[in-house]
Amino acid sequence: MGSGMGLAGTDYAVVMASLPTSETPEDSKKVDICRNLPYRLLDAPFLRNDYYANLISWSHQCGKVAVGLGNEVYLWHEDEGVSLLQINGNRSPIICVSFNTVNDLLLVGCRNGMIYIADAPKATILAKYDHRAARRRSSPECGVCSAIWIPNRKDLLIFGDESGYTGVLGLKTVQDTDHEIHGLAEMGGHSQQICGMTCPKDGSEIAIGCNDNSCSIWDISCLQDYDWTQDIELTPKLTLLHNAAVKAMAYCPWSPSLLATGGGSHDRTIRFWHTGTGTMIKKIPVHAQVTSIFWSRFNRQFVATFGFSDPGAGSLISVFTFPELELRVQVTSRAGLRFLSASQSANDGQVAVTSNDETVRFYEIWPVVAGAAPKFPKSGLYGSDLIELVEGIERPEAIIR
Fold this sequence. Notes:
Blueprint: E1 12-16, H1 25-28, E2 40-43, E3 56-58, E4 65-69, E5 72-77, E6 81-85, E7 94-99, E8 105-110, E9 114-119, E10 124-130, H2 131-135, E11 144-149, E12 156-161, E13 166-174, E14 178-186, E15 194-198, E16 205-210, E17 214-219, E18 236-241, E19 246-252, E20 255-263, E21 269-274, E22 279-285, E23 288-295, E24 301-309, E25 315-321, E26 327-333, E27 339-344, E28 350-355, E29 359-364, H3 385-390
Antiparallel strand pairs: 1-26, 2-29, 3-4, 4-5, 5-6, 7-8, 8-9, 9-10, 11-12, 12-13, 13-14, 15-16, 16-17, 17-18, 19-20, 20-21, 21-22, 23-24, 24-25, 25-26, 27-28, 28-29
């Protein structure tokens, strides 16, 4: 990308099962359809080989893919090609990029604590915020390594840094055309580097993953109606413990109380939680560092990407059914290749991943078909009568174990 993002050759092997769009028992057993993946591979020189960085984000509005390379951000579009985001005077490594899902605003976080908000179609900076100066700290651990825009809001976001600090920022329009970034609230809750963040689509909660081997759940529903006049007070409602850093997290789009989390190198497990009670309802060992998780809106399936793996495992991407946790897809590659971070397309059918060989790879995971979310069993999804009662799931018998 230093000289432009370009197509590269491929050196991968793919082992792939079929991805049925229906849910019949016959379809669920098919394993005989293979595809060529990835469908696109782009050179990305100077891409950081860093599990803790979040260097790719795919806009759900303009379709651009933002990638942080060194101290620059490039924007790639299938039809328009590559453009460079102009960040005048920045010499600090980029360690985080994040698109707003309701407009074309892009957040860029830097190792020196600077935060920039850009207009992606125009590839220009609208506002900047000095996180280190705002905290009055000289510590080098102010790098902004994770951020997420509040769903359904054009002006609010939550970010985390390398010290474990988390906070709420707001983007305010001044005199019609100028913009300012304001610190609105401090959150806390963690003592080490923030690795990832995710929200359900209604913006009621946020899950924050950290290098302290935990994931915290916060009620942020008050931010949906925030009008810049109230004080914001947020406290964690749950802490979910793991055996390693937690970067990969995703709320299920068809069951918002269902959260999937993936542990790092010393954990190598995907867990499923009911965030209303903090109950772990299922887990599956995956023998690899989990770097991202995404759910399908149209199938009872989820996809995970992986970094370091056990000897002989070598999986880069796996697709599982839920709640059965049956492996449906496995993408493998040459030894040493690892996926670091990923972003999902607006239609949920594709993922773009950054890898340690300085490439960005695009994979089609699910066929894009029109339709509503699948119908799920009335019972058995959470494996607990009590939790399903809380969720309003009907049971054939009124028995609580």
